[in-house]
Design a protein that fits this description.
heterodimer, A: 680 residues, alpha/beta, Rossmann fold, Dimethylsulfoxide Reductase, domain 2, Barwin-like endoglucanases, six-stranded mixed beta sheet, 27 strands, 34% helix, B: 275 residues, alpha+beta, Alpha-Beta Plaits, 2 domains, four-stranded mixed beta sheet, two-stranded antiparallel sheet, 9 helices, 10 strands
Chain lengths: 680, 275
């Protein structure tokens, strides 16, 4: 259109009038109309157990046209009460992950070369059962070792146990996070039972020794719930939360007080606190005299410790230690908790609980009736390293990632390794045969779970969605192998095997009526009464005293060119070392620094001690065992002399979002390992 | 009309008339609306209408991030990757905002879950040249992707940095498309997106209420973040309903709003940490 004088005025007037429209008219014309939501396919809900970790939360899966499109917690489930952890919330991504394994794989090239031949299930199961038969008849060494995750009883584990039992003894092992078995070991030696209930929300003072419990409690949802209870419970005062830890963690930030401590010396701090309580005579004398054994010897063994020495070794000021002892004796009930540390730390902290009179009815800890929390023949690392088996069957765990130092040797020495997994993880990559299994949403569940406060919960529910690929339930695989090897008396198919167990547990009704959402039964309330199952019927200090005699607890700091200490922690998004394969979890891995999608090393600016190193630069973290790359994150909140690294990244496989991203600090050491830094 | 364009007289008359209309419209503005309202902002709510709001108890919140993941799943948020993370371009409608003060050995930390603050006088809607972002009658600040021209004025106007821009079209592997929530559209390249208080859930809840011939009840509608929070730190509800937990908690002595002094009147209330 030509810009004539006439047109110019026409437009001028038009736009003038438009802008002159009253506000309401403009609004009526321009405000977007809210359309009705699009028509939806057939909607339904499936109720099942999350199954991504052993906690056993109840979940509700929203399905539209058969696809799982949403996930939430079951509001009245006794374990999670409607809440879910980030991992549970991300479980749809695991189900629909594009890099899931779809067919059994047989190794073609050398181990770890990534050359595979796709084979059928018949071929795979035949090959494996032949291998087992040959191993059984051939040599004198252990024919088979089965490795699975430490957890309470479930139907898949039962099938694996059946397979292991049909082949030999002492061949069934559980793998946990490094050192995660020590808390139970400590309870067993001091209480005589691994079954301990943990009434965290009863405490008025909660002191954690090196345990970033908000991020790495084994039942994540319950930890968050307990925190909310401690802070704003319905009818009680606000509890005091003290966090003793080398890193200013999420828990330390949420606590009332953070006590920085040198990595690995938390146990020493617990011992000196015990000594203070005894010296001040503020311990629970009635409990100690009536219900414990070996107190005098324990008291004597503490003589060697002086407040001054401990303060130097732990780097906690003397004043702070004295103040902590006063807090412990004045705020009741006071509970001391810890996890995943050396046995000495576990026992020292638990001795503190005994001194505080915390054990038994009404206390924070109590003995528990009901089923075993964990079952296994022992610690795989130690016994298998000495005598590797002929054949290793790995069930949905990744030992080469979680404990690379010991397991690399075991795997190298084992002639045949078969792995059941949904992804090509570290261990699967080094296996000879990989058997793809269902993700938790595709398999039926029948399992026991122990809630934090000690009630045992039986869960039973069928699969939430039909399997996407030709994968199998792990239990189905183990049952098929047992049948091929032992033949008779094994049910013909996995479904009837599951139903047989359901019948025994009187859970069939639960299983069939799961669409109503009631997929659990509480088996027993937290027990009361006799707290100790030791032979003496008393709490045993001797076990701790014996360890104290053997160890030089005041071990001085060695330098030798590695001036810094490594602190390892597991972000909630990567709890149990798993989760890096899901993009939604990657983005919430480092809530404090908003760091994600790579391995970051937190340290104090003075600690970095590299001239010119600035925040965000790439560095090498080197120990005597090796070196890994990380991004330096300088924080004035960090403890000087400590380098903190998250566990969970650094995979060679595990799908496109995990592969080649970040590094695994478990490759270079463990908690407290001495390290040095240099610019990359 | 001819005289308007041909004669000098008519031209002046026309000019005067236009000016007059401009003036009148200005007066109309001054009369018709409340101070602080510049157009598509606040309209007094009819009695009985809902006004949706959220209360986040920072004393209970543990910064676990479940809300972030639940929101991402519910709203088909782009997956993200290391490159986007390095550029700060990961789109999350709800973020955990960390802040740290002080230094070793006594630092302080705050982890603050940050959804759209759903302002009653939203700064973002006022700058939108195409009415793609607006505040609806129940207080939810909406975003119409098909209208959005990607100018990012609103993104800059938001004092809470709660809006995200799609610099690239999201990449969705074929397998993962099966888990799309059918109630939420996939955003194209070049538009701004934001937290909508899971508005689609409200629509579904209303549909259900109508089908069952009853009014909408409290708790019929909960956004994904409030529903999943394991610490029960997020409470959602109708602020116009005096019996709702959200309405009561928002009057708690611990209650505060972010950047209150800006007068955006957010409907996300925080309860401060500590006794």
């Amino acid at each position: 259109m030509e810009i004539s004088r006439r047109n110019f005025f026409k437009f001028g007037i038009f736009s003038g009038l438009t802008s002159a429209l009253p506000v309401w008219a403009k609004k009526a014309v321009l405000t977007p109309k809210e359309d009705a939501p699009p028509p939806m396919g057939e909607e339904g809900f499936a109720y099942t157990i999350c199954g991504l970790c052993p906690a056993g939360c109840g979940i509700r899966v929203r399905k539209v046209d058969g696809h799982a499109v949403g996930i939430s917690g079951i509001p009245d489930h006794p374990i999670n009460q409607g809440g879910l952890c980030p991992k549970g919330a991300a479980s749809l991504q695991e189900l629909y992950h594009p890099d899931r394994l779809r067919t059994p794989l047989l190794r073609r090239g050398p181990r770890g070369s990534g050359e595979w031949k796709e084979i059928s299930w018949d071929e795979a199961l035949r090959a494996l059962s032949e291998k087992i038969t040959r191993a059984k008849s051939g040599s004198k060494i252990k024919p088979l070792a089965a490795l699975t995750r430490a957890r309470a009883w479930d139907i898949q584990g039962e099938a694996l146990r059946g397979l292991a039992d049909s082949i030999g003894k002492d061949n069934f092992f559980a793998l946990g996070f490094p050192k995660s078995e020590f808390p139970s070991d400590a309870y067993e030696r001091m209480h005589g039972s691994r079954r301990v209930a943990f009434h965290m929300s009863r405490a008025k003072l909660l002191v954690s020794f090196g345990f970033d419990w908000l991020q790495s409690y084994p039942s994540p949802v319950e930890a968050q719930m307990a925190f909310a209870q401690l802070r704003r419970g319905p009818s009680r005062d606000r509890a005091e939360i003290v966090q003793i830890e080398p890193r200013f963690s999420v828990t330390a930030g949420k606590a009332d007080q953070w006590v920085p401590v040198r990595p690995g010396t938390e146990g020493l701090l617990a011992l000196i606190l015990a000594k203070q309580l005894i010296a001040n005579e503020t311990y629970d004398k009635a409990f100690i005299h009536a219900q414990s054994r070996g107190f005098e010897a324990f008291k004597k063994s503490l003589d060697a410790l002086s407040l001054d020495d401990v303060s130097k070794t732990t780097e906690v000021p003397e004043k702070e230690i004295r103040l902590l002892a006063v807090k412990l004796s004045s705020l009741k009930p006071a509970a001391a908790i810890t996890n995943r540390g050396p046995l000495l730390t576990q026992m020292a902290v638990h001795a503190l609980n005994a001194l505080l009179g915390n054990i038994g009815t009404g206390g924070v800890f109590s003995g528990m009736e009901g089923r075993e929390g964990f079952w296994a023949d022992g610690l795989a690392d130690q016994s298998l390293q000495a005598r590797p088996p002929e054949l290793l069957l790995v069930d949905r765990v990744d030992p080469l990632f979680l404990s690379p130092s010991g397991w690399k040797e075991i795997v190298a020495k084992t002639p045949f390794v078969a792995t059941v997994s949904s992804f090509l993880n570290e261990t699967a990559l080094s296996s000879d045969l990989v058997l793809p299994c269902h993700t938790p949403l595709e398999r039926g569940h029948c399992s026991f779970h122990v809630s934090a406060n000690g009630s045992a919960v039986l869960g039973a529910a069928p699969e939430a969605v039909a399997p996407l690929y030709a994968t199998k339930d792990p239990g189905d695989i183990f049952l098929a192998l047992t049948r091929a090897l032992a033949g008779t008396r094994v049910p013909a198919d996995f479904d009837s095997y599951v139903m047989g167990h359901m019948k025994k547990l009187r859970a069939e009704k639960m299983f069939h009526e799961s669409s109503g959402g009631k997929i659990w039964r509480e088996m027993s309330a937290a027990a009361s009464g006799k707290p100790h199952a030791t032979r003496s019927g008393k709490f045993e200090f001797d076990a701790l005293t014996d360890i104290l005699k053997l160890q030089d607890v005041k071990k001085a700091r060695e330098d030798g060119g590695f001036p810094l200490h490594l602190h390892l922690y597991a972000p909630l998004a990567f709890s149990f070392g798993e989760g890096a394969h899901l993009p939604y979890l990657q983005s919430v891995a480092g809530p404090q620094t908003q760091e994600a999608w790579e391995t970051w090393a937190e340290m104090h600016p003075e600690t970095a001690s590299l001239p010119g190193l600035s925040d965000g630069e790439a560095i090498w973290v080197e120990s005597r065992r090796g070196k890994i790359k990380a991004r330096a994150r300088l924080s004035r909140a960090a403890m000087p002399g400590v380098v903190s690294l998250p566990v969970g990244l650094g995979h060679a496989g595990y799908g496109r979002w995990a592969k080649g991203l970040g590094s695994n600090p478990l490759e270079i050491g463990e908690e407290g390992t001495e390290v040095k830094l240099w610019k990359a | 009309m001819e005289s308007l364009t041909t004669s000098r007289n008519g031209f002046l008359r026309g000019l005067l008339g236009t000016l007059g209309v401009f003036l009148l419209s200005g007066i109309g503005k001054a009369w018709g609306t409340a101070p602080g309202d510049a157009g598509h902002g606040k309209r007094p709510l009819k009695p009985g209408e809902h006004r949706w709001g959220m209360v986040i108890d920072l004393d209970k919140c543990t910064g676990c991030g479940s809300c972030v993941v639940a929101c991402s799943t519910e709203n088909n948020l782009a997956l993200g990757n290391p490159q986007e993370a390095a550029m700060g371009r990961i789109i999350r409608w709800l973020k955990i905002l960390p802040s740290q003060e002080g230094e070793f050995p006594a630092p302080k930390q705050r982890l603050l879950p940050m959804p759209c603050q759903q302002c009653d006088t939203p700064p973002c809607t006022k700058v939108c040249p195409v009415y793609a972002t607006f505040r609806n009658e129940e207080g939810i600040v909406g975003q119409v992707y098909s209208r959005c021209i990607g100018c990012r004025y609103c993104l800059n106007a938001c004092p809470y940095t709660c809006k995200d821009f799609n610099w690239k079209a999201p990449v969705w592997p074929k397998e993962m498309q099966a888990s799309f929530n059918p109630d939420v559209s996939i955003r194209p390249k070049g538009v701004v997106e934001k937290c909508l208080f899971c508005h689609h859930r409200l629509q579904r809840a209303k549909e259900e209420a109508v089908a069952e011939g009853r009014p909408l009840r409290e708790n019929d509608y909960q956004p994904a973040c409030a529903e999943i929070c394991p610490a029960k730190a997020i409470v959602f509800g109708d602020l116009n309903n005096n019996d709702s937990d959200a309405a009561n908690l928002s009057k708690d002595p611990r209650a505060f709003h972010l950047l209150e002094e800006l007068g955006a009147e957010p409907k996300v209330t925080y309860l401060k940490e500590g006794a």
